[in-house]
Amino acid sequence: MLTNLVEYLRPSRLRSATALRRFVSGEASYLAQRATYEFSRNTLAWYGQHAFADREFNDRFRVCRWEGYAGLVEVFCVLVRARLGRAPEGAELDAAMVAAAASMLGEYETPGHRAGWDDVIASLRARLALLSPDAPPAPAALGAEVADRIIPALPVQSSNRKEDREVLGNAFGFGTIAFNDRLAARLDAPALAADLLRQAG
């Protein structure tokens, strides 16, 4: 119990691929759940207590959470890779980061609305190929993109689609900024890069 308290108050540094996967997956899962739930609850107001008891509503809500999770895994991996910086083994680090994302997405049974996550992996691979140390990615913009991904899957929307996009964009954007701050505080970039390359080799 004391160990868990110390880890909560002073979380360990991210030095291994295993620790990175646990961190990214946990953060993505939490933000996807929180943002979609709060948006749905606030949009439905009093009627939410009935909606969340409806099977069809919950089926759509699960799709929304899955798509949010996948989108966040992708953009969080972009932010991690950007912090690893330049290296002679840059292509190998890109491949290792893609493998880490595939491992996170493959850790769970593929949800029923999908045949797999190939499109997410391909998108991440393309993003990493375009990363430039002279133009680091903007966390808020990356997070806001996830809103566009999940809007078609939302189980409920208001009559003001523009405001819906703004609310969700802010939720995912601010959440991604917070993730990036926690990443900066915990990341041991040289150790992590070495472990990613070791596991890839």
Summarize the structure in words.
It is a single chain. This protein has nine helices and no strands. It has 201 residues and is mostly helical. It is elongated, with a radius of gyration of 18 Å.
| Bulk shape | elongated
Radius of gyration: 18 Å
Q: Give, in order, the helices and strands.
A: HHHHHHHHH
Please work out how many helical segments DSSP would assign.
9
Low-confidence stretches: 2-7
Distance between the termini: 37 Å
Q: Strand tally, please?
A: 0
Strand residue percentage? under 5%
Mean pLDDT: 88
Characterize the main sheet.
none
- Class from secondary-structure proportions: mainly alpha
The helix content is over 70%
Tell me briefly what this model is.
By secondary structure, the chain is mostly helical.
Ordered list of secondary-structure elements with their pairings:
Layout: H1 2-9, H2 17-44, H3 48-51, H4 55-84, H5 90-106, H6 118-130, H7 139-150, H8 161-186, H9 189-200
Helix pairs in contact: 2-4, 2-5, 2-8, 4-5, 4-6, 4-7, 4-8, 5-6, 5-9, 7-8
What are the defining features of this structure?
201 residues, 9 helices
